[in-house]
Amino acid sequence: MSDENNIKIVILGGARCGKTSILSKYFKNKFNEVEESTINPSFYQITVNHNEKNYRLTFYDTYGYKIFDAINTIYYNNCNGALLVYDVNIFETFQEVKDWVNTLREVVDKDLPIVILGNLFDLSYKNILDKNAPEIDLYCSKEHCKHFYTSAKTGFNIDEACETLINSIFTKLSNTIHVNYGRRGKKLEISDQSNQIIGKDKKNNKDNEDKKNNKDNEDKKNNKDNEDKKDTKEKKERNIKKKLLKLDKLNQYYNF
Length: 256
Known about the structure:
This protein is of the alpha/beta class. The chain has 2 domains: 187 residues, P-loop containing nucleotide triphosphate hydrolases (Rossmann fold, 3-Layer(aba) Sandwich), CATH 3.40.50.300; 65 residues. Helix content is 51%, strand content 19%. An 8-stranded mixed beta sheet has the order 6-5-4-1-3-2-7-8, sandwiched between helices. The protein is elongated and about 110 Å long. About 10% of the residues have low confidence.
C-alpha cells in the first residue's frame, strides 16, 4: 500500500490517563485493571475503504511522561489526526492537553483534526466535573476540537470519540458520503458538502413545491371568487327579470 493511502493517528496525553487502555478497548474490547505505563509504544491498524480506495489507519500509542516528549515527536510527526487524553479528576493533565494542541498546531498542521478525551469518567467526582467543565468546553470550542468524557473501563464514548476523529480526517482529506471500515464490521457515516448540497436541493425542491401549492391554492381561490361573483350577478339578473315580468303583468292588468 502506497504512503498516500496510509493514515497516521497518534494518541497523546499525560501518564496514567488511560491512553493504552482506550486503544485496547476500541480495538480489542478489553480492559486491564492494572495496565502499566507505556514503555514500548505499540500501534493498532484498521483498513478503510474510501472512495473506492483502501486506506490503512494506524493508531500510535505513545509515552506519557514528559521526559519522552522528544521521542514522541517521531510518532506525531506528519500525523493526520490526534486523540488527546486527560484525567477528568486531575485538572493539571488538561493543561498538558493544551500544550499538545499548541505543539501539533505549530509543528504538524494548524487545521489538524483533534479530539479531546476526558478519561476515567467512571471514577469522576461531580463537583470536579462541574467546576472544570466551563473552562474545558470554552477551550475546546475555541480550538475547534471535539470533546468527549470517556471511560476505557466501561467503554463509555470510546467508539464515538475514535470514530468522530476518523470522520473528521476523511472529511478533511476529501468530500465523501460514507466510509466502510473493517473494525467489528461497522459502517462510518460521514457528513460532507455533498450531503449539504443534497440537503439544499431538497430544501429548494420543497420551497418550489410550496410555492406551486400556494399558487394553485391562490388560483383555486380566485376561481372560486370569480364563480361566486358570477353566481351573484346571475342571481341579480334573475331577480331583475322577475321584477320586470311582474311589472309587465301589472301594466297589462290595469290597461285591460
